[in-house]
User: What shape does this take?
Amino acid sequence: TLRFDAREYIVNTQLEFQNLSCFKLLGDRQHTWIKSNSNKRFESFYFSFTECNNFIIDGFQFDLNKRNIPEVYSSADDALSKEFNGAILINGNPATYFSYNIEITNCYFYDLYNRAIRIYGCSQGHIIVRDSLFESGVQNQIYMMEHLVISQSHSANVIVENNIFRNAENHDSSKAPCAIFAFDLGYYGSVLINNNYFEYCGRDNTGHHRLYAIDFYDNVNNFVISNNTFRNTTWGAIRFDGIRKNGMITNNIIHQLISDDGGMINASSRGAAEFNQTEFRNITISNNILESSGATSYGIILQGLSPFCNSENIEISNNKFYHLKGCI
Assistant: This one.
């Protein structure tokens, strides 16, 4: 166990942890701050973990420092998929199975620049992000902005619960960060997004970025999105695109601030041959409440775009719709 005292730690370059097992990094949950004292951005994340397993990160406050950085993320950065001033990067090789059993709990991610957490290639065990707070000020870029990214972890059991994703009040949906972005999950494992709170989240389709508050784009199967509250959603709440099978969206409360025609819950199978979408089945959307501040929003849109498969066993039931142009 490595304990960090209740003070500020100045970090202006990436700290790397490699090939480690069975450890804890512990802050005091209130006063252990990881932050930069520079007005220049640095590429990558404060903490980077490569091929590590069975570890816990608990009780840290991460200041991602956007307010002090005059340089705005641009199309030149996005073309190379660069990431700056992130908090936690967890990087595994899906072929080796050395990154697994990861928990991030009781942390605070403040003043988002690009991404707070990115987890990649953890192909077994569990990934847990719980009891944490993610915040962003008003953004002025239209490229890479997601609080939490989990990807290409085919056999992992993913749990994201009891978190708050809170962006500053914003009425421009092109600059509202996405809360959770995921792809290539649930092939052999599962995904649970439960009891989280989202405020002023949700990107529109302007720019190079992930959409909605939760964006499963694409190939996320065997998932449950339940008991979440979406307040002042600035575009759609949930998009699951390219899903093959076994999804449940239930008992969520969604309030949409800015009207759009894409659906507060949106799903489609992928049409192009290279996506090889041969199944789209076992999807349940039930017991949700969908409400809009404007009268031109749509509630639930499901699209079967693939000529290679038929939709099977799709249930939409017991949802409540208020002040919408179209429900389903």
Observations:
- Residues 228 and 296 are 23 Å apart (CA to CA).
- The first strand starts at residue 2 and ends at 3.
- The longest helix spans residues 75-79.
- The two ends are 51 Å apart (CA to CA).
